[in-house]
Amino acid sequence: MRDLITMDDLSNDEIIEILDSAERLLPVAMGEIYAPLLQGKVLGNLFFENSTRTRMSFESAMKRLGGEVVNLSSVGSSVAKGETLYDTMQMVDGYSDIAVIRHPRQGAAQYSADAVEIPILNAGDGAGNHPTQTMLDLFTIRQAHGTLEDLNIVLVGDLRFGRTTHSLSHALVRFGTKLTLVSPETLRMPNEIVRDLQSHGVDVTETEDLASTITEADVIYMTRIQKERFPDEDEYAKVAGVYKMTAEDLSGAKSNMIVMHPLPRVNEIHPSVDETAHACYFKQAFNGVPTRMALLCRSLGVDVPKEVGE
Fold this sequence. Notes:
The longest helix is centred in the middle third of the chain and has 15 residues. By secondary structure, the protein is α/β, with parallel strands linked by helices. The protein has two domains: about 140 residues, Rossmann fold; about 160 residues, Aspartate/ornithine carbamoyltransferase (Rossmann fold, 3-Layer(aba) Sandwich).
């Protein structure tokens, strides 16, 4: 029974093992074969913030593996009546075998894991971490490039509040990745995170100029400027729409460069990019299913067979 709260909960070898399991589970994720590895197990899906891809992919992953799902949100539950997170988690502990939690408060996932016996997977805690997103991002990058080693990856947009980029950057530097961090001055990656990234001995560059990074990039990871994280709407207005990628911008990119985005997008990627060979964000979103299948199996102590379905 193993939690996943931050990427520090996984060694490099464990990351590769999970990605290998996800690769074997792809036919199950696509509905081509049925493998009820989690039959009889129940997943508690606890989402105190809005979600489309994370919530649906976890539900799809559990059901494709023969398990069941119970859902909870702030609306329509006793949370709206003032029930504490601790008390809610005690109920979930009795109703399910594993739980996924998304919460607006940083640290809520670890608090929940400490409160219960079942394994907890962090699906995003405020501006903190989003390790299951990182795992599907790593899976997508490895699919495209065949490796996680020695790539040139550009992270763009809201790097201050973006939990996806916080988790992903920590994972990438463990594989020797060169990172370029592109953001407005007010949305730069927090200094303590940058220092930690640099402590791994990798090349970390910070800039506000996206155009200058495109030709050398192997991956460009776009993110939305998150209005909901800004305490002051005027501050948000100053940076909203600062980066807008079009197909024309990618004319000088490497042929195998991929554009990723954790979604939802607003206007930072023009629809013209969708028709290029570089667009990878919809495939990236689908990859949440096999990757989260592998994570559910790991946390529940279920081995993924070498030949799934046989």
